[in-house]
Amino acid sequence: MSSARKYGISGIGMIIVGALLWQFAGDIETPVITLQKVGRILVVVGAIELVHAIYLGMRGEKAHAGPEATTDPSGPPPTD
């Protein structure tokens, strides 16, 4: 499974869980932060991850591999 697909599945899962928390966890009280706010944060982070997955899918795996993937495999030119 490619990393773009993994990021996409993870992003969609975060959006779904975040949306469920945002909609249905309003009356649950926690000591530090409300679950509705956690849901909103999960939706935003999931959307960012989904956009990143789409970018990776469009660019291919080389976009995620870094600059090493774009170098010439034959090495640097010889110097005299």
Automatic annotation (TrEMBL):
A Pfam family hit: DUF5708
Keyword Transmembrane helix annotated: yes
Species classification: Bacteria, Bacillati, Actinomycetota, Actinomycetes, Micromonosporales
Keywords: Membrane, Transmembrane, Transmembrane helix
Name of protein: Uncharacterized protein
Keyword Transmembrane helix: yes
Residue stretches spanning the membrane: 7-26, 38-58
